Predict the 3D structure of the following.
Amino acid sequence: MKNFRTVLFLILICSLALPRLIYASEPHWQDGRIAEVRTEHEGKVLYWIANTPVTKNNEVIYRISVHVKDKLYTASYKEAPTQAPPPKEWVKNHPVKVEVGGGAMLLQTPGGETLKLGGLRWKPAPTMRPIRSAEWGAQAPQHEAAPTPAESMVGFSKPAPAPESSAAASDKTENSAAGDAGQTSAVDESPGTVSVSSSPYLADIYVDGKLEGYTPAKLSLSPGKHSVRLEKQGYKAWTAEVTVAAGSQSTVDATLSVGKR
């Protein structure tokens, strides 16, 4: 009788634990937005000379913050042959698939690979702006068909307009001719694309004082004048003023000088 109760107890424990093990083995992906991508260098003391440490900055650390629902998650990883630098498309507000749990964070790259980050921390944040299906573009989830983008985004072009029937085109022409000739057209406020690169690369990019990623990167900026500043440890800060026209494409190529920021 005692053995029978033991067997029943073990069966009950297994029935409760098995679903959790199955669930834990499958990633629970959520929608998130990139909040910040920072590049840091970790120094290692090689030896000392007259009480002065001689260090070597070979290890590159990537610290990534992701906005998910009403939380801001931050984790990091070291660059290695098995884990390359974060995709250049990951600028602020870029959509990303994320899984958090067990002190780690998994991020899905546009190429379908998975980056694993450790040292997970989080803090409350305002509710994340919902992600429209058009924002995913080529990074659409694998279980869904990739939608056609409805508007211009970094790394994607505007779709061609749907063809009009001949009758609709004729009516449109007549209505346009009959309209008020003195009426002014709406101002084009579509963003422009600015490609930012630097020598050396992996420099932090600040636009109007806000961190927007690291070089090389493509930024989507509103029309008008913007202040662009590049910073990298061990180099002097580089600044320039960029004028962006609606729907334009421009390039910023900076050469940083060695010295303090």
User: Anything to note?
Assistant: The two ends are 78 Å apart (CA to CA).
